[in-house]
Amino acid sequence: MADSPLSGIRILDFTWAWAGPFCNLQLAYLGAEVIKVESTLRPCVTRALPSFADGIVGPNRAGYFNQYNQGKKSILMNLANPDAIAIACELVKHCDVVTDNFAAGVMDKLGLGYDKLRKFKPDLIMISMSGYGQTGPFKGFVGYGPPASAASGMFFGTGYRDGDPAEIGISYADPNAGVFGAFAILTALARRALTGEGQYIDQSQFETALALMPEGLLMYEMAGREPVRDGNHDFVMSPNETYRAAGDDKWVSIAVGTEDEWRALCTAMDQPGLAQDPRFSNAALRKRNEIALDEIITGWTSKQDRWDVTRKLQGVGVAAFPSMTAKDIAEDPHLAERDYIVQLEHPEIGKRKHAGVPWKMSGTPCAVSKPAPIRGADTEEVLKTLLGYSRDRVEQLQKAGVLA
Amino acid sequence: MDNQRPSPFAAIKVVECGEGISAAYGAKMLADIGADVIKIEPPAGDLTRRRGPFPKDQPDPEKSGIFIYLNTNKRGVVADLKRPEGREVLGKLLERADILIHNVAPSQRAEHGLDSAQLCAKYPRLIATSISMFGDTGPYANYKGYELTASNAGGWANLSPGASPYPDLPPLKCFGSQCDFQGGAHAAFTSLAAWLHRLKSGKGQAIDVSEQEVITAMLEMNLTHYTYAGRVASRLGQRLLGPWFIADCADGKIFCLAVEEEQWKRLVELMGNPEWAQDDLFKDRLSRGANMDALKALMSDWISGWKTQELYQAAQKARVPFAPINTMKDLYENPHLRERGFFTQIEQPGVGKLTVPGMPSRYGVTQWSLRRAAPRLGEHTAEVRGELAKSA
């Protein structure tokens, strides 16, 4: 794209699974050219996970891969082959950023460590997004998103009232690491723009999750307590809960942060007297009598459609919203009007709905430039353009198993 | 922390306003790498001053833990943006600012002097980044929202906790303020991208970050389960692959995951090759998912004999990605974090030393530091007004 925030920035992307690809996805949305290095010998796990378009299993048909690799190029390289490593080093000369999310030390073992690569590109920016970081006693530990969320204390703090620690529904530590990775790369690009220096960034998925646990950590640090699991309830605000609505497993969240909102809620429920009820007349009292309050609100919501509750309450300035399913999101008129849901023509599976860019920029619009790549689709084009390889040479390297 | 050399980012001037977590976190990310951040608070103080946690649970607006975490490295100015005098201060700050990050809702922007189009017209070099619940446009643009709203509107809560046996209990939000943090983090990196673009073009612009969309982007394979296969996932139901569950050790809880066949083989070996592991019920990861209750019962006998940290280490040594359900105490005492020096200390006047999460991404060159305590309410109002008067 001609005038994107990161036009002209090229990234050689060795990441796979979710955290790394999610990082590079943000940079692709911002207009960077992301060259994803893949191999048929060591396929990305998300190309093999359901759901598949039309129920047909195939590397280019997986929704998971196609969601998180939009706008990228794909080249095939067998990194177990020394000739492929030599080509990768040549490519680095033409790239600004190298990304990986292998376990600690793997890039060094492959012959793609930062100290070597910077010889090919002195102002190179490189980020390794491993599970536990490149140093420390747990550096070799296997990092997956769900266990990283468990280790970060998020499971300990999450759960229903008086219940056990709970999982959190998504592999949150993965996309979170990707977001921090994107910030770190932008920081390094900004620094390079000012000083000319590149740098290496050692990012630990465990630590990026901990950065977002201050409320629990500081409770222990300052008040000597562990967080208490209490469902959707807030430390301070009340009511703050997701209530049953009419229909099968339909729910609507209601959160009240001010006394004005509280009075508006009571009026909307046709119970204006509730606002003066001595059990509920300020936030601290509502918090203390929260279970009784939740029962009263459930009595009102459970007979109504969740969207009716939402419109009624939002109409009087109260934060209410349905608990959205994937179907609700895919068909939501608001997200459609904002062009958030994108449907681009994919060469193998046609048009499918995906989540798009979660921000808008007025001067340099960001968009999904193209669907996720067919595996290896750009091998020849990239080697031709960046290294001047002929078609014959590319074919030879493919036959020799170097570009495979 | 190395705070001897001046950071090249000290020349980046950031203004932050609005209340709560999202904008404050986005501005914190920029402050921590060296940007000069001025936080504008309303006269009553930011609402996070009232959220705590507080030392010994005694509320005090100058001692709120979350306020301190979000606002170290910033200078604090009080200005009431609902009044002309306050908007005048904002205007002067924006004249010399590079980046504005705020989370004032679209319906309240005009009265706060924060209409994006007007800001772009008046300050053509400014990067004006707003974080809101549903974005600046569309039918829900004026809807209100808090953390719980974002978690539900983005589709995350509906999937949580996952494989729940409690259909009568509601979709569950994750601990803390994750959606607000994500809104802030997206504001921070998109603002930096726009700043990089401004180096070449000289032009600022407005950025509209929607928390709903930020969360919807994180639903893993769940959105495409629907758009590819018509399958609607929810917090109920069953895990597809196994083993995948939380179990009890002798002294705590551990999260057990071994969904790759190689991991399962190594786990079976670690368990001492029990006979039951050869049963057809557990022959592959899908079978182990389908028969998870039986699998968990059998594995639990073995797990309960272990101490959490010892099983964690033993499993990881076998390259099986178990992880403890760490408590806050566990985290502060974690030997790995200690050796990496992850936690860092700040000295907050009136509170004393606090140990807080440090650098989230370990930079080789970029200086990351906590070099200044969080501001008392209005601490820098006079100082900043003085600077504005001088530069006028």
Topology:
The complex is a heterodimer of chains A (404) and B (392).
Chain A: E1 10-13, H1 19-29, E2 33-38, H2 63-68, E3 73-76, H3 82-92, E4 97-100, H4 106-110, H5 114-120, E5 125-130, H6 145-151, H7 154-157, H8 173-195, E6 199-204, H9 205-210, H10 214-223, E7 240-244, E8 251-255, H11 259-268, H12 283-288, H13 290-301, H14 306-315, E9 319-322, H15 326-330, H16 333-337, E10 341-346, E11 350-355, E12 359-361, H17 379-387, H18 391-399
Parallel strand pairs in A: 1-2, 1-4, 2-3, 4-5, 5-6
Antiparallel strand pairs in A: 7-8, 8-9, 10-11
Helix pairs in contact in A: 1-8
Chain B: E1 13-17, H1 22-32, E2 36-41, H2 65-71, E3 74-78, H3 84-95, E4 99-102, H4 116-122, E5 127-132, H5 147-153, H6 178-201, E6 205-210, H7 211-216, H8 222-229, E7 244-248, E8 253-257, H9 261-270, H10 285-290, H11 292-303, H12 308-317, E9 323-324, H13 328-332, H14 335-340, E10 343-348, E11 352-357, E12 361-363, H15 381-391
Parallel strand pairs in B: 1-2, 1-4, 2-3, 4-5, 5-6
Antiparallel strand pairs in B: 7-8, 8-9, 10-11
Helix pairs in contact in B: 1-6
How would you explain this protein's 3D organization?
The complex is a heterodimer of chains A (404) and B (392). With 404 residues, chain A is α/β, with parallel strands linked by helices. Chain A has 18 helices and twelve strands. In chain A, helix 1 (19-29) crosses helix 8 (173-195). The longest helix of chain A is centred in the middle third of the chain and has 23 residues, at 173-195. Chain B is 36% helix and 15% strand. Chain B has 15 helices and twelve strands. At the A-B interface, helix 2, helix 6, helix 7, helix 8 and strand 6 of A face helix 2, helix 5, helix 6, strand 6 and helix 7 of B.
